[in-house]
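Input sequence (87 aa), recorded before submission:
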Amino acid sequence: MSDIYTFLGGMVTVGFIVAALFFLRFWTRTHDGLFLAFAVAFFLLGMNQALVSLTDMPIEERSPLYLLRLAAFSLIIFSIWRKNREV
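Predicted structure, token format:
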């Protein structure tokens, strides 16, 4: 049963990394800081998922890896707030 969770965790990791690459491509076209922030945030989410899958943490929410997810969502919230303040 553990192999399927590792496989699915890898698929989620790849999805986050692909989303990060899409936002990075949008950033190279527009040079909008919001796209760069989303690319970094999705990369952090991908790294979090990869580390959780590889370390086989029993309770994910109580591990220090949770701080990567917190940093990603904080970056998204801050960049959206900053973008709305520019207008």
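Checked by second reader. The chain has a mean pLDDT of 91.
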